[in-house]
Amino acid sequence: MMMSDVEITHAAHLLVSKHGGNAELEAARYADIMSGLGDRDGLLTWSKIWRTIAVMRPARTGLPQ
Question: Which terminus of the chain, N or C, has fewer Cβ atoms within 10 Å?
Answer without folding.
Answer: C
